[in-house]
Structure formats: structure tokens, C-alpha cells
Amino acid sequence: MEKLVGKGKDKKPPVKDAHISGQTTTSKEPTVPSSNPTTSTLGDPMPLEDKRQLFQEKVRLSNEACQNSDFERAIRLYTEALVLDPANHILFSNRSAAHMKLKQYEKALHDAAKARELNPKWSKVRVLHSFFFNNVFNI
């Protein structure tokens, strides 16, 4: 995710693991006026800096939702963040864990497999993938 954060004084540090970062807040979700978070209300492409800020906000809010055990909201927010960064293995892994909490095992396995496809060397996703095959599906 570090590639998403530009260099500069006013930039926030990248969130290494959106599921475990430990951030808490009471703010509400930002509203996205169009169904596609990468375009403005007029259908114009959203500036890159705005996309970065929206992405970081979605990750922060999904963190908050997981910490509050609101896994349905977390899944929705991870999905919205993935629209902005569809190659982010951490988001797929975190969404997989949220699906697991809701016992949506097939969806969780799908996201774990996608995370593994995007970054096969990442240890957290290997553990998730192994868990499925050893415990959930008894293979």
C-alpha cells in the first residue's frame, strides 16, 4: 500500500495492515455522491489526490468497523476501497477475515485466494489459505 501514498509533508503514513492498525474514531463515513467512487458527481474522473484520500478514509473506516465487530460494514468498505486499488492484497485478506467472522466461508476463501494470487509470499494470507483447507473444508 505504500505506493498509494505520495511523498510530502501533509501526507499520512501508509496503513500497513488495515485490519490490525488499531485506529479508532467516532466520525461517520464520507458520502460518495456517485455509485463509482472514482468519478465526481458530474462523471468527471476524480483527481489522484482525492482518490488517495478517499482510499485512506475507506481503510480507516473499515478498520473501525472491524474493531466494533461490524463486519458487514467492514466488508462493504473494503469492497469500496478495492474499487480504488484492485491489486491490494491486504484489503482482500482483511475482507476475507471479515467474511470468516460472518461464517461466509466461500466468499472468505475467494478473497484469500485472490490475496494469495496478488502476493503469494505474504505470510498472513498463506495462513488464511491453509486454515480453509485444513479446517473449513477438511481437505
UniProtKB/TrEMBL annotation:
Residues 30-41 have a biased composition (Low complexity). Residues 1-48 are annotated as: Disordered. Residues 1-19 have a biased composition (Basic and acidic residues). TPR repeats lie at residues 55-88. Gene3D superfamilies: Tetratricopeptide repeat domain. GO terms for molecular function: Hsp90 protein binding. Signal peptide: none annotated. Pfam families: TPR_2. InterPro entries: TPR-like_helical_dom_sf, TPR_2, TPR_rpt. Transmembrane segments: none annotated. The keyword Lyase does not apply. Keywords: Repeat, TPR repeat. This is Uncharacterized protein. It comes from Patiria miniata (Bat star). The lineage of its organism: Eukaryota, Metazoa, Echinodermata, Eleutherozoa, Asterozoa.
